[in-house]
Design a protein that fits this description.
This protein is mostly helical and 249 residues long. Helix 4 packs antiparallel against helix 5 and helix 6 crosses helix 9. It is globular, with a radius of gyration of 22 Å. The two termini are 22 Å apart. 29% of the residues are buried.
């Protein structure tokens, strides 16, 4: 199961100090002491409503949505199965952010979604098939990014070798291959092996949680994808690994 305390995002980020979500962070500890484990406590539900309102308002801002995800991860265990009250607002946000351009949002959104599944598992049957389809797209995107970064890394290394050769021959290097964004490209070249793997690891973690729910809808969706893989439709090593994760083959 998922431990929300291990979410890869910090609530002590400087941007938090200027966010209205700071109220949630300050209120939650005393509220937990006051309300305890009462999943019907009005205070918990008040905070969740405030969080969702803020999230919908600033869903396009990466730093703000990361703060929201960290806060909601702390609230979900307090609400338990009552998190279902907020599925209509929460699930579209999490599924949208699972396809975000910044990898950190993708990873944290999947972690929070796993926490939601963990606490709402008796009702997750109706959503398991949709979640699977989204995870397939996330895995394909992660695989594509990894391939793209591999090309960038190869291009960068080749450029470095060419420039070293010109320097030895006393020649001036040509214009920058990567334009004015060389620093970012260097970082991409250095991080080729890690970034996409984190999002795929989050996909596998969520799948393990879904598997424990024993959803028939999930098994049917996975079987359909496996059949497509056998027929050569959208064949992918990442998808094959996801199928094995569910069926244990």
């Amino acid at each position: 199961w998922v431990d929300a305390s291990t979410l890869p995002v910090s609530l002590s980020a400087p941007a938090l100090l200027t966010s209205s979500l700071l109220v949630v962070v300050l209120l939650l500890p005393p509220l937990q002491a006051l309300e305890g484990k009462n999943v019907r406590a009005e205070g918990y539900h008040m905070l969740m409503k405030e969080l969702l309102t803020e999230a919908e308002r600033s869903a396009h801002k990466p730093q703000q949505r990361l703060i929201f995800l960290a806060c909601v991860a702390l609230l979900i265990p307090r609400l338990g199965l009552y998190i279902l009250r907020y599925f209509a607002q929460l699930m579209p946000l999490l599924l949208e952010w699972a396809h975000a351009y910044d990898e950190k949002t993708v990873v944290v959104a999947l972690w929070v979604l796993a926490t939601v599944v963990q606490h709402a598992w008796p009702r997750i049957e109706a959503h398991a098939g949709v979640i699977w389809q989204h995870l397939v797209q996330v895995a394909k995107a992660a695989e594509a990014r990894k391939l793209d970064r591999g090309v960038d890394s190869y291009s960068y290394n080749k450029q470095q070798q060419e420039e070293q050769g010109r320097a030895q021959n006393g020649q001036q290097p040509p214009g920058k291959v990567f334009g004015d964004d060389t620093d970012r490209q260097v970082k991409v070249a250095a991080d080729v092996a890690g970034c996409s793997d984190r999002s795929f690891a989050a996909v596998l973690q969520l799948l393990n949680v879904l598997k424990q729910c024993g959803s028939e809808t999930l098994y049917l969706a996975v079987a359909a994808t496996a059949q497509q893989q056998q027929n050569g439709v959208g064949s992918s090593s990442s998808i094959a690994r996801m199928v094995r994760c569910i069926f244990g083959q």
